[in-house]
Amino acid sequence: VAGHGFFTYMLFYSAFQQSYIWLPFIGLIVGVLATMIGSGGGLFFPLILMLIFQVPAHIAVATSLAASLPLGIAGSIGHYRNKNIHFQLALLFGVAGIIGAVSGHFSQGF
Question: Where is mean pLDDT largest: 8-12, 14-18, 52-56?
């Protein structure tokens, strides 16, 4: 859109659905539940977006990741300050996660 940045356009000129008003409340509930079971919300956010809000799966997953990333960073900082992080295990899980994500991406074409 001429004269408008991409994010400005998305925030102010994209279609708004009335059901979006419920998203902060649902986010609060998901955050509480995810914290209680230690899942981080990655299990609940995409399911709610897909089943209740009819968001396509690939958009629901990416939206969940974008919403969870700042929370994960904030939590990690707190745990780092309390010396609760086992860095060798974190590196192992991080590398395995990256390999899994890349493999999953390439397997989508089959």
Answer: 52-56
